[in-house]
């Protein structure tokens, strides 16, 4: 049987998109225009566009027309779920974290903001004042659950995440990593299975490894986040003991789960008796829209363990994070007490006094604006210098860009070659257990955007071309 006309048209447009005639995010000709250009009826074009929408190639925006999807396309392919473990921590992760301290390297690699985007001066003043007025605080333990002043300030900040916290629900931790470890230890035993997003933050994969857990990798769509149908399937097939999710500006994809998905996730996990571990470390860094309420704020049953820190917005080196553990609070306080006894007093007091003086919101507004502007710059440069067949994510916050390169590019090779030229990147293999993201790259854009950063993108483009030859 002959292929219907609308299918032929859809195939042709798909081909044009693949060959780079229309780049991700760009508008394709209107239905009327295509109907004229192709001398076919409006109804046929509508059918063809509908088919392209079903294939996930274009997307209709009401009143605006049809646009090429910005999404990384390979996600839908990986729907087979299985239980995995981490065999070995990829050396790139540790190499890159050390390389992040080298000022001669362009820091696209680690998820660390450049110091110019952190309130270093204000912290310097706080620390100076504290040491002048109360030098004895260096000698004083600030036992778990941590400084009451800081917990009060965090309770105020939690209102922005939609949650009315009492200071005594909050336990201060050594960054968000430490909070995640506590949450996993409180909900699992070695050998247990948990559900995680894929791709995901490599520190979580390392925690899975250290705690001898097994993980089911649930696809994370770059726009909408965790695939809830896949999670539902996982919960029905395996004894899942916890589900770790980063609903806002996920690392590395930048995805954001909308309110409906958060509610559905909550309901699904409540029914399956699966505790949710919510990692909200990028939650405050949204560029445009109102912040979507945290899953914690929607949870009447105290089934969510909320983890966050000030590492992405104030001072990663201070190692100050927090956990709101709901029904696991007592156990987590015990874990925190045994594992760290106390959290550095000076760091807690300096951050509390920075939060008290009201400068934090101003600081956040400024950095969000810069990151949004940097995102445009880096995407434009990538469009200019990376080959056809490159897709990038469209983050609405945070400062991490996820890039899918043409399939023939081994991103690990690119990482090694780039590092020799003084350019840090993070290859996709660092972000999952099953090594599916071999031609993917994560790039940090919380860096100073100038001619040399632009040139570094151009150099990366040249390296990719050399690999393709
Ligand atoms: C998603 C995510 N969670 C947790 C962390 C760890 O944060 P911290 O430095 O506060 O331990 C990071 C750091 O990159 C992260 O990206």
Pick out its properties.
469 residues; alpha/beta; Arc Repressor Mutant, subunit A; Aspartate Aminotransferase, domain 1; 9-stranded mixed β-sheet; 4-stranded antiparallel β-sheet; 42% helix; globular; binds pyridoxal-5'-phosphate
Q: What can you tell me about this protein's structure?
A:
The protein has 469 residues and is of the alpha/beta class. It folds into 3 domains: 64 residues, Winged helix-like DNA-binding domain superfamily/Winged helix DNA-binding domain (Arc Repressor Mutant, subunit A); 136 residues, Aspartate Aminotransferase, domain 1 (Alpha-Beta Complex), CATH 3.90.1150.10; 225 residues, Aspartate Aminotransferase, domain 2 (3-Layer(aba) Sandwich), CATH 3.40.640. Strands 3, 5, 6, 7, 8, 9, 10, 11 and 12 form a 9-stranded mixed beta sheet that branches. A 4-stranded antiparallel beta sheet has the order 13-14-17-16. A two-stranded antiparallel sheet has the order 1-2. The radius of gyration is 23 Å and the shape is globular. The protein starts with a helix and ends with a helix. It binds pyridoxal-5'-phosphate.
